[in-house]
Amino acid sequence: MTTEETLSKEQIINDSKQFSLFSWSAQAAVNPIAIDRAEGVYLYDCDGKRIIDFSSGLMSVNIGHGDQRVTDAVVEQMNKVSFVTPSCTTEVRAKLSRKLAEICPGDLNKAFFTLCGTSSIDNAIKLARLYTGRHKIIGRYRAFHGGSIGGMTVGGDPRKLANDAQQMPNVVHLDDPYYFYGMKNLDDATKLSLSLEYVERIIHLEGKTNIAAFIFEGESGSSGCLHYPKGYLKGVKALCEKYGILFIADEVMSGFGRTGKWFGFENHDIIPDMVCMAKGLTASYVPLGCLMVSDKIAAKYDATPMMIGLTYNAHPVALAAALAVINIYESDKLIENTREMGAYMEMRIDQMRSQHPSMGTFRNTGLLGCLDVLKNKTTGELMAPYNAAGDDLKVSNQVAAKIRELGMYTFVRWGYIFIAPPLNITKEQIDEGLAIISEALKIADAAME
Fold first, then answer.
1. H/E/C letters for each residue in the chain?
2. For 59-117, what is each residue's pLDDT tens digit?
3. pTM of the full predicted structure?
4. Domains and their CATH numbers in the chain
């Protein structure tokens, strides 16, 4: 076989399984969809079947698929120069760096370009430790920060448990404020106060002069879009300022319009010290990450070497894609559309509730949403518990299979259905997608206690 030959769908799947490894999966159980092309909010498999993408790939193809403007920008840059070492610079590096400084609030004016989300996280951790001279990083149990050793350690997603023996040292995890928000006999102000007292107690227990940084998602993503209580992130940021601790915002999933603002943290009236970016930065057309750093942090390295680096730092082809994508957010008013379509999505899901007793809470910010699928309406028990496995996933797997059969690509994880379509989606396409979910929910309805 030559590399020029066209493969059948069966051969694409067979060769992919035989000669490559699929992430987060038992390889024998992998059943990939062979995608031939993509356009707008749709994928097309090798048989020509149209599949609505209701999760923007990995919550990342924010501008939709197949936008020729990005392709043109990449080709133009490759025709000029495809690669220069990080010690050189290019016009596109100057333009994108300035543009990112413009859209980031406060003094977040310095861009360090990386390869992906988790490499942005890793470099944020390294820089926080170098800048502060401290060693501990505090994250959350119900958070995901990528698949590197550093990213997996600071997150709490159960996918990391198999790698526990390889964890990065000096990482501490916080429980969610939801622990306190279950106390129904307390008002919201008291619950918030207790939540922040818990955070401050951890600071003291771990040694306030040992903690380099807190890391939080700007808005929660793959853990179930768990909303921070109003005032919580602002309170944590205040504690960071009180004790000289840096605040790192992970905007890999919630950034670039996904929540109806440029960045998720803007919904919480804070300005972080560092911001980790990827995914929506290029809408996943090519790999790229970025760590935005405050002027205050950057100033330390005016005369002192900053000892972090990558071969592909500021890769010009990836930067060209990012600059084109940011221009599309603005020219096509995608952030405004996200707010409008997010409100429409919430309204339509509320209308569906009378048909489906299995529908629980829908947590949504812009177009970053997650629907709870219930096993018991009275108790609120999910159809599959957090970190479920085996028989506990039986019904959820059936729901996921029906969604796929009916022509939708999205994530069904445990008792959650994720709903995060591209930001250029229309009302008609939302209706199309929700009709598929509605049909699949009939399986969950029938399985309820």
1. CCCCCCCCHHHHHHHHHHHCCCCCCCHHHCCCCCEEEEEECEEEECCCCEEEECCHHHHCCCCCECCHHHHHHHHHHHHHCCCCCCCCCCHHHHHHHHHHHHHCCCCEEEEEEECCHHHHHHHHHHHHHHHHCCCEEEEECCCCCCCCHHHHHHCCCHHHHHHHHHCCCCEEEECCCHHHHCCCCCCHHHHHHHHHHHHHHHHHHHCCCCEEEEEEECCCCCCCCCCCCCCHHHHHHHHHHHHCCEEEEECCCCCCCCCCCCCHHHHHCCCCCEEEECHHHCCCCCCCEEEEEEHHHHHCCCCCCCCCCCCCCCCHHHHHHHHHHHHHHHHCCHHHHHHHHHHHHHHHHHHHHHHCCCEEEEEEECCEEEEEEEEECCCCEECCCCCCCHHHHHHHHHHHHHHHHCCEECCEECCEEEECCCCCCCHHHHHHHHHHHHHHHHHHHHHCC
2. 999 999 999 999 999 999 999 999 999 999 999 999 999 999 999 999 999 999 999 99
3. 0.96
4. 33-63+334-447 (3.90.1150.10), 68-331 (3.40.640.10)
